[in-house]
Design brief:
6 helices; Poly(A) polymerase nucleotidyltransferase domain-containing protein; mainly alpha; Beta Polymerase, domain 2
């Protein structure tokens, strides 16, 4: 707790924190992305013939890194992790073809930078 206070104080001292407008925008981006992930998972499950009650469960977006810790700045990226049911695989997510989430991101107005990390490994 003491180190957290020291870090927080230092960030305030050197003006590293995002201002309230930037913070609000970042929260909106995460919320919008979360909605996109859920909708994409539902649509992809339906396309794969998954029963409707399972498809409607959707997916979940988690944030990590500096954003999750509350020590992000306006210039930092927002690290995210997408959790989806077993019917969705890495190829679905990283596909640059229509139907893939990466494709969807790249073709969404207002999204200017997409950096998929295909070699990321998340233990389950």
């Amino acid at each position: 707790k003491k180190l957290t206070k020291l870090l927080s104080g230092y960030m305030d001292e050197v003006n590293l924190r995002a201002n309230p407008e930037e913070t609000t925008l970042r929260q909106k981006v995460v919320n919008d992305l979360s909605i996109m992930v859920n909708a994409w998972v539902v649509e992809t499950c339906r396309a794969k013939g998954v029963p409707e009650d399972e498809a409607r469960l959707g997916g979940k977006l988690f944030v990590s890194g500096s954003y999750r810790l509350g020590v992000d700045t306006a210039k930092d990226d927002i690290d995210t992790i997408c959790a989806a049911p077993r019917h969705i695989d890495r190829n679905d997510f990283f596909s640059e073809e229509q139907g893939g989430f990466t494709y969807r991101l790249r073709n969404t107005p207002g999204i200017s930078h997409v950096m998929p990390i295909t070699e990321a490994v998340v233990p389950i």
